[in-house]
Specification:
mainly alpha, 3 helices, elongated
């Protein structure tokens, strides 16, 4: 429930605009997939996403480490509230 009418109207407009051009069948299919993901707590999809982005981040770091013109900031590992443990930095860390 949204108490603020202005926010509700913005949300409603956003949903209408982002769903334009997407067939109802596709929307129902995605809804079924999301129900499966949420049904198991979503842990598998988040672990998969984290692993995928981590591999890509490591590849990107490897490429930039060979460059003399560009570099990436080194960020030390931090505690992940979602996975409840210390993890190496990846861009997807902020998704969890």
């Amino acid at each position: 429930m949204v108490k603020d009418k202005a926010i509700y109207e913005k949300m409603d407009r956003f949903i209408r605009l982002t769903s334009m051009g997407v067939s109802k069948e596709t929307q129902l299919h995605v809804l079924q997939l999301l129900k499966v993901v949420v049904g198991d707590g979503g842990n598998e999809i988040f672990s998969f996403g984290y692993g995928t982005v981590k591999k890509r981040w490591e590849t990107l770091n490897k490429i930039f480490s060979m460059s003399t013109r560009f570099s990436l900031q080194t960020i030390k590992p931090e505690y992940c509230n979602y996975f409840k443990k210390v993890r190496e930095f990846t861009p997807c860390k902020f998704l969890f």
